[in-house]
Amino acid sequence: MSNVLNADAKGVFVIAVTPFTESGELDLASTDRMVDFYLESRATGLTILGILGEATKLTAEESRTFVKRVLARVAGRVPVIVGASAAGFAPMRELSTSVMDLGASGVMVAPAPTLRTDDQIVAYFDMVNTTLGADCPWVLQDHPVSTGVQMSTSVVLRVLKNSPACVMLKHEDSPGLAKLSALRAASDKGDLKRVSILTGNGGGLFLPEELTRGADGAMTGFAYPEMMVDVCHAHASGDIEKAHDIFDAYLPLARYEQQSNIGLAVRKYLMAQRGVIASAALRKPGPKLSEADIADIDRLVRRQTRRLQEIQ
């Protein structure tokens, strides 16, 4: 394994949760176990301080502490990407410089939610290039559900053409299969440099189809990251039907985890149940699962376990 981030990246970059204690403090012991869990699940990379990493609830000092702990535990075995979207370019530069100095492999940037026109989006990422510099590999995050910014295929192509240090697209348009096909066709024809395309739609809810359309893997979160790893491995080996069978076994739980209001609480509950993190706590404000939610989840886990045994 290597911690280098480049346009050849493939596999599964897991979006990590941020573990907290019941009182809301960073749980660094659980952070170590979580990193071990992701690597034992054969993740090819990690992404931290993402939207579902509760990054906006951390102070700057807590963010540095968490990044430092993850990087120390990973110890260069896989690339680690850090979310660096910020309200302004000065804090973006400060955070990016800080995490790269700590040993991160690259940063991820989404368009600012104030952007409205195609030209504004392109100009924004021109400034991102200036802010990050030529030596900082970065990931373009296309997630209109969270940013409110719709980037058309032509705009993404313009941004990538203007961005030599952008080595990866995190494709999260929903479902965006036609966009994915068009972007991969552009690089296949030589109209665009090849970049890694990792998909993030709702815990991988379209992963088999996205792999068929030319995605290189997944960058998203799910309490069972081995699902994404096994689907990618089966697909890469040419066993498309097996990839779909594995995916189908996990789909009901993956779907349940993607609820807009309680999804992260579901993921943390499952990770606590699996012994990965000590507490399922979200930092306030955050939802709590009801007894009915937990009954749903436990039923889905039992059904998933049975189905996986049947397809082995």
TrEMBL record:
Pfam families registered for this protein in UniProt: DHDPS
InterPro entries documented for this protein: Aldolase_TIM (IPR013785), DapA-like (IPR002220)
UniProt keyword annotation of Lyase present: yes
UniProt KW keywords: Lyase
Family: Belongs to the DapA family.
Protein name: Dihydrodipicolinate synthase family protein
Species: Paraburkholderia strydomiana
